[in-house]
Design a protein that fits this description.
This protein has about 270 residues and is of the alpha/beta class. The chain has 8 helices and 9 strands.
Length: about 270
Amino acid sequence: MSTIAAAEFLPLVATEATAISSVIVSLHDVAPCTQQIASTIISELSAHGVRVCSILVVPDYHHEGALAKHSQFVTWLRALESDGHEIVIHGFFHERPPHRKETLRDKVITRFYTQNEGEFYDLDYEEALRRITTARDQFHALGFKPRGFIAPAWLLGTEAEQAVRDAELEYTTRLRTVCDLRSQSVFPARTLVYSVHNSWRRALSRSWNAGLFPLMRSKPLLRISIHPPDYSHPLIWKQILGFISATKTARTATTYQDWIAEQRLTRGM
């Protein structure tokens, strides 16, 4: 296995911008093919007070080519990072072809729930490690030092999670938790997220998040996960901006890496 020098995995340094009551807005599925809409989303978020986001970048989205082949996209990412945004590894191909002899549960999760994009749902250890370390090394070669790995749809199997640890990445997240892999701390923090594949999913997502948001307002961390197609649905986007507006005076926008650094500092880790 290829490794990265230990100096590149020094403890994160907490920043003054990280507050006890925080909001992390993560933008998923960022790739050359989604750059234009992602840029628009980031600009609108900034106009509404979210100055930094965790940007979840897919190394080779649906086999469209490694990031090094997309110089303009890489330049854009570098500019985002220099502005304080965090670059996160988000899967590798962001797709999982249907398998033979799947159980009904597997079919529901990987086809109905994730539309065949739960890439790390059941990858074996060796393949998961290969993809994660390849992504890590590619990002490093481009000048990025990602701290986190987040699986598509947050579906990270047991063997794949061990691969994330062995690749020396520092954290991951799931739908309901944030996991500091270095300290072994797991923080309950459910994210607000939308499914927009059809009208009934969009309506259900809005209703579900409208009911969930009041319950999350008292939590120390509010997570909002955005996917590029969300922006194309006005009612979804309006609700997202409404949540952000409702919390911007009480919470500070931060990134996963800075929020985890604050937790380590608070706990003396």
